[in-house]
Amino acid sequence: MKKRSKRYKEISKNMIKDKKIETKNILDLVKKNSTSKFDESIDVSLRINLKQSKGGDFSLRTVVNLPNGSGKKNKVAVLCEPDKVEEAKKSGADIVGSDDLIEKIAAGKFNFTKLICTPAMMGKIGKHGKVLGPKGLMPNPKLGTVTTDIFKSVKDIKTGLVEIRNDKDGNLSSTIGRKSFSTEKLLENYNHFIDSVKKEKPDTIKGEFIKSSFITSTMGISYKVGAK
Q1: Would the pLDDT of 227 be above 60?
Q2: Buried b (16+ CB within 10 A) or exposed e, 167-181
Q3: CA 8, CA 54: separation in Å to the nearest integer?
Q4: Which end of the chain has fewer CB atoms < 10 Å from its terminal CB, N or C?
């Protein structure tokens, strides 16, 4: 029999089974359960409807810019033309390079969590897609990581931009902040996240797009959301 920790036994007293409660109350409970020493991530998990009335199953991949930020620290690299390197360095990026950065990527040196690329450099980075893609690092215009506006892209990623993508069963998840955030800021982020996902619903899907929503923390308990 698996032995439960003292901490788990304590927070398990706050479990609420088979009952959907309001989002604000859930966030209060999730923050209360975040008793670990580090600043736990507050996460939302959704089950969405993928079944279209025509064609194959729908696939969702997009970005959401949280109004209060995500609290996640990204190490951003910018790949650009040599004459734009100095400009890119002023954007706040952690790593900036041109052909020299491509050489590092080719050598398997991925000391960054996000890669921004200018359109002119996409032809050079394309052959490394098989390596970058599985790591979620391949620049993509739809995700704002292929751009001529380096300043905006770096700022968005450094603040509140989160990427979401569903799996084959229609599950998708994202952080909406940290336990150090106020309940009000987390609630604003959550509502914005839900509204953003709903806007992605195609006309070919009938009925409710979001089937269910759960909120939890890194080391906490998951709660099913009822009303806002």
Answers
A1: no
A2: eeebebebbbbbbeb
A3: 46
A4: N
**Within a domain: 3:** no
Over the stretch 110-122, which tens digit does the pLDDT of each residue have?
889 999 999 999 9
E strands present in 57-207: 61-65, 76-79, 95-97, 114-117, 161-165, 171-178
Q: For residue 187, what is the domain's CATH number?
A: 3.30.190.20
Burial class (CB in 10 A: 0-12, 13-18, 19+), 122: middle
Residues near 195 by beta carbon (within 8 Å), at least 6 away in sequence: none
Pairing of strands 76-79, 61-65: unpaired
pTM for this one? 0.81
User: Helix 183-198 to helix 23-33 angle, to the nearest 10 degrees?
Assistant: 130
Token pair in block for residue 159? 């603040």
CATH number at residue 98: 3.40.50.790
Asked if 192 and 66 count as a contact pair (C-beta separation under 8 A), the reply is: yes
Domain that holds residue 93: 76-158
